[in-house]
Known about the structure:
10 helices; three-stranded antiparallel beta sheet; single chain; five-stranded mixed beta sheet
Amino acid sequence: MADVDTRLLRYFLAVAEHLSFTAAAKALYLAQPSLSRQIRQLEARLEVELFARGSTGIRLTAAGAELLPAARAQLADWQRAQRLVRAAAAAERGALRVGFVATGWGPLARQARARLAPGAVEPRRLDWGGEPEALREGTVDIAFVWLPADTVGLHVEPVATESRWVALTRTHPLADKDSVSIHDLLEEPVMWTRRAPAAWVDWWAVNPRPDGSAPRWGPENDNVEEMLEGVATGAAVCIGPESMARFYAHPDLVWLPITDIEPLRIALAWPQDRKDPLLQAFAHAVLAGRGDADQGVRVPRTG
């Protein structure tokens, strides 16, 4: 299996463990059609059928049952090897690589960093929804993860919540309001990205909406700067955490709280097999301060 992408093995394991493409896709934060294509790709690579598909569901074939323990072992060995070699390189520098997405590097992180030696913490910005995979692959040692997310194999400690806000162009008809409901945004195109898991995109776009409808999809983006510039043109709106309004203030945008959707939860997460002292010291400092740090951000309505 040396030439098989380990990502495909992880997808295979999810389907094998759930015996349902729907449940596996939900656990992986993928769209079901995408997961089905990936499994077909793996079957084509191996030149076997791994699942017997029928009207009553799916089951492992003999080949699939044989692959299951081998895939588990190979994936675990490869992920552990990546983590170990990358952690060793960081430890040699005396550094802890801390991952975050957009505004995830907040007060708790700064307080924790202040308690450690200068240069001991290296902030690493990650792609939208990329924190769990970065932790599993060892690209970072510990990360502030936006939930919901695929946290299998990770130790997860909730540390903060933030309400979700919408960014509008300053000329938008809703711009003079103090707050909005998700129902006010039903006809608004929403910025989105292919770089994040499909379920991550759906959660931020509130898909489906409370009335069961799907959002109108606007332009794509690859990063927060592109997203906000797209909103500034009037092409769409975007939904982000409250702190984004402060970290990414824009003269052409208005930020308003959305009053009737669940907030973002932020967690500190790290691989379950990581016990090194610097990581534990950082985690202890963050967790000790989570009751005191105010993650909420009060921003002017007109940004």
